[in-house]
Write a structure and sequence with these properties.
Blueprint (H helix, E strand, L loop, with lengths): L5 E21 L2 E15 L4 E6 L7 H17 L3 E2 L2 H11 L1 H7 L2 H22 L4 H4 L6 E9 L4 H10 L4 E5 L4 H15 L3 E5 L6 H7 L11 E2 L8 H11 L3 E3 L6 H8 L6 E2 L8 H14 L3 E2 L7 H14 L4 E5 L4 H4 L12 E3 L22
Parallel strand pairs: 5-6, 5-12, 6-7, 7-8, 8-9, 9-10, 10-11
Antiparallel strand pairs: 1-2, 1-4, 2-3, 5-13
Length: 375
């Protein structure tokens, strides 16, 4: 197999839902199941690659994004020829730009294109007969991870289970009132000792609220405070919050343009930047942005909360780019993640190590989760 131009023969998305015993709660809503939209791409030589589309919200969003891939983007891409996946990402983005604007669905289209892009990068790395992390420029296959998705209830139990699985860093969901938030942060700080602890408010507060609340969180020794205000708040509001917070601020999962990331890189407002490759940009747009993040002296920590294929691709990106960032790993049970995240499921002392197999390093057996597939 050579690394010459390849032709896309087919693209197919499948939708799955795993019901949760305990809903995952954020400051803006609840998830009663874990959805996943997996994308399978095949080129004219029969090389297969896999990707994943972000699909957590709204509750019906996964099925909708599946149809965008299968009914709109797949016919557009079939027979497409490219030397590099980024060419096809650019083509799909350009050809759907007016349609996304007309329908008011820039997010769903960007997410569907991102999932396809991940699958095409998997093919590209397999055709180059190299692991994806190495193709992206990595020199070290080992990365740090942290446990995410810690709810405001049952917090300590879930955190203890995560530590038992090998985690050494935690991130708590906050935004549920000062009493609840501070009690949970104190409990986790006592549990983890000097280990890394971060907090995610999921855009819960207005800028004045955040300026009042954030300083009171300093004594918990947070590695970062994530999305305390809306991601699209005017930048001066973010700058003001940074001056009073007394800790690094984090954002990026809800940035959906190069301009948004460039603004965040232009000053010291954000210390941690978190693009989500299944939500916007795929690897084609986010890998150069990740390099810019490190060049700006900031911490690159990929955001991810979904199934195993997107998580594994995010791990390859972090290993490929390097730096001292950590990969987000959901602490809640989810076979759609656990069965397809490959070596990311094997956490040892807060780290995982990717292998030398080509591409993502594994081919998911989708037949094993057929019972979770939706119509």
């Amino acid at each position: 197999m050579t690394a010459s131009a390849f032709v896309v023969r087919s693209i197919e998305a499948r939708c799955y839902r795993y019901p949760l015993e305990a809903p995952v709660v954020t400051s803006f809503g609840r998830m009663i199941d874990r959805p996943a939209v997996f994308v399978k791409a095949t080129d004219e030589d029969g090389v297969v690659g896999f990707g994943e589309v972000w699909s957590n919200f709204p509750s019906t969003g996964a099925e909708h994004r599946t149809r965008i891939v299968n009914e709109i983007l797949s016919p557009m891409l079939g027979g497409g020829k490219a030397q590099h996946p980024s060419e096809l990402w650019a083509m799909l983005t350009q050809r759907t730009s007016v349609l996304a604007l007309q329908s008011g669905e820039q997010g769903p289209f960007a997410q569907a294109i991102a999932g396809i892009d991940l699958a095409l990068w998997d093919i590209f790395a397999r055709r180059n007969e190299t692991p994806l992390w190495r193709l992206l420029g990595g020199a070290n296959a080992t990365i740090k991870v942290y446990a995410s998705g810690l709810n405001p209830t049952g917090t300590r139990r879930l955190a203890e289970a995560a530590l038992a699985r090998g985690h050494r860093a935690l991130k708590l969901k906050i935004g549920f009132g000062a009493k609840t938030d501070r009690a949970n942060l104190a409990s986790l700080r006592a549990l983890i000792g000097d280990g890394m602890l971060a907090a995610d408010a999921n855009q819960a507060w207005t800028p004045p609220q955040a300026c009042e609340i954030a300083p009171d969180l300093r004594d918990h020794g947070l590695a970062w405070l994530e999305e305390p205000i809306r991601a699209d708040c005017p930048w001066p509001e973010w700058q003001k919050l940074r001056r009073v917070a007394g800790m690094p601020l984090a954002a990026g999962e809800n940035f959906a343009s190069r301009d948004a990331f460039q603004q965040a890189l232009a000053d010291d407002t954000l210390g941690v930047i978190q693009p989500d490759i299944a939500k916007w940009g795929g690897l084609s747009a986010c890998s150069p942005i990740a390099r810019d993040i490190l060049a700006a002296g900031k911490r690159f920590c990929p955001h991810y909360l979904g199934g195993g294929i997107g998580l594994l691709a995010s791990a390859h990106l972090l290993a490929g780019i390097g730096g001292d960032g950590l990969l987000e790993v959901d602490a809640n049970d989810n076979p759609l993640r656990e069965e397809f995240s490959g070596p990311v499921a094997a956490i040892v002392d807060g780290r995982v190590s990717l292998g030398e197999d080509p591409g993502l390093g594994m081919a998911p057996d989708l037949a094993s989760i057929e019972r979770y597939r939706t119509a």
